[in-house]
Structure prediction request, 248 residues.
Amino acid sequence: MIHEESIALLARRIRSASAISVLTGSGVSAASGVPTFRGEEGLWKSYSPQELATPEAFERNPKLVWEWYDWRRGLISKCRPNAAHEVLALWSRRYPKFTLITQNVDGLHERAGTENVIRFHGSIWEVFCRDRCPSSPERWLDETVPLGKIPPSCPYCGGLIRPGVVWFGEGIDSEVLRESTAALDCDVFMTVGTAAVVYPAAGLVDAAHRKGAFTAEINLEPTPASGAVDLSIQGPAEVILHSVEALL
Ligand code: OAD
Prediction:
């Protein structure tokens, strides 16, 4: 199917849908200047997830892990939402049953004004006490850039705080899983800007398909999900979503 027909088909499906769900990945923030994880320029080309994004890495070297997160927070703080975030934010306000699930921790969907974002992998702007000390909240916002002291201490017990993100080897928050599962009951499920390799997020589109949703993928390149979705559109999310919106 040529590009224009695919975009028109997706627009028709969205127009007739009563419930729409979207799963996003780092490709959605690429045009804002936030690095993706895989691919030529991806973070995992220059950095090792085992040394920076696991609970074991944090136990071994909290300073190194926090230095990396402090660098990423600084970088993200200079980035602005792009057209992809803006179209999705518009849809979140326009369609009463619209759910956005994001694997991104950058907060750009929220900054674009998206309502009810489900943060599948947490937020880089939140922290919590590593020991979950009884006097500390479950998690709290800390947008300090750059951090004054690395690694930062818990203001409640003096121990360590850690980034409020999900690391490799960690489970997804049960409430987040519950909300994401509820979002599978939809008419259209779109996956946008994700390599579709990190589970359980990568399994959501298939699960939505099995429940009868029309499934679509928007990504720069083919992914393991491309063959299984009803419609796969290759191209930049910020351009494709804008073109779809123009037809609504
Ligand atoms: P990846 O870096 O794995 O994949 C990003 C995808 O976006 C790639 O397939 C790119 O081709 C595509 N892409 C890049 N620019 C794009 C654009 N402008 N428009 C559309 N697509 C574009 O990132 P994620 O799939 O988000 O998890 O990665 C998933 C998880 O793996 C992350 O949440 C993170 C990472 O390790 C954890 O840290 C737990």
Summary: Residues 1-33+81-121+172-248 form a domain with the Rossmann fold fold (CATH 3.40.50.1220). Residues 62-77 form the longest helix (16 residues). The mean pLDDT is 96.
